[in-house]
Amino acid sequence: MSIKSREIKNLGIAIDHPMQQILKLLPASGFSEQISLIDKTYKSSLLERRNQAEADKEQRKFESIDEGRSHVCVPGVWIICVSTDYKSACEASLKKSTNGNSAPKEYVRAAISALVDEVNGAFASLDDIKSDDPDVKVAVEQCREMHGYASGELNRTLGTIDDANSLSHLPAQVHELKNWLSATSAYQQTCIDGFPAGELQDKMQARLESAKRMTSNALTIVGKVSSFAPVLHGSGSRLLQEEEEENHSANGIPAWVPESERRVLESRATKEFTPNVTVAKDGTGDFKTISDALSHLPAKYDGRQAIATCKILNLSNKKKF
């Protein structure tokens, strides 16, 4: 089964932006492993080779030739969560309601929506507190009041995100968004502090812990929106074009491609490209490895056999710093 290269499905987002836009998202320290991985990862690729020896030799030089563009596949969830303090919680909440086809703005909205659910769930536990202690009763009522205030701030946050035409319009609203989220965090702490020191206060602290972490994540995300907006959105394509002009011909063919190969590829540049087989490590192609794809090519054939590959980066943070 042949799959058009532009129809290959993956769990990430095809990013047509200069690498420094991605690296801007990384904290100042602690991510050398990921930076190295991004820097060394070959781009989505078209390989036209006739034997295993040549494939092994050229595998390090994979370059995409897909409508004259090259791109790196980077998961959108990773882009949003990489700078947060609680990455696992961030990634888990976003993966529930987003996928590789989600619009960039939807990642930010998903983070706030997950926070709303977490806050509502935590404050709902107030119904389980039964006590005749007047101080506890006052604390419970104060928490309900704080819940109402927090809900109002979160609704304003969601409304602002919904009103934005795209992710690129959100940076202008960052100040208001951070104010509302900071207030939400303060309301949670006010609820906790209202209980007399002891078992009930500790329980309320534990119930709101997840909500506090997600609030922290949300503050980081909206604070970084101006950094990752150019990566997830299309506003950086001009920078990519300028960066690639030195290394690509007018048809976007890498400079390292021999002249004889270049003429063949240029003749196809304006035609619809359909590879013979596709390779994707995540199983979305015909084969998972290039070796498997090569072993299934016919021993004799006319013309060329094209193998299109897409490299999906696994950018999970494997180390704690």
UniProtKB/TrEMBL annotation:
Boundaries of every Pectinesterase inhibitor domain copy: 72-221
Alphabetized SMART domains for the sequence: PMEI
SUPFAM superfamilies: Plant invertase/pectin methylesterase inhibitor
Domain of life: Eukaryota
GO molecular function, one term: enzyme inhibitor activity
Pfam family, one: PMEI
Name of the protein described by the UniProt record: Pectinesterase inhibitor domain-containing protein
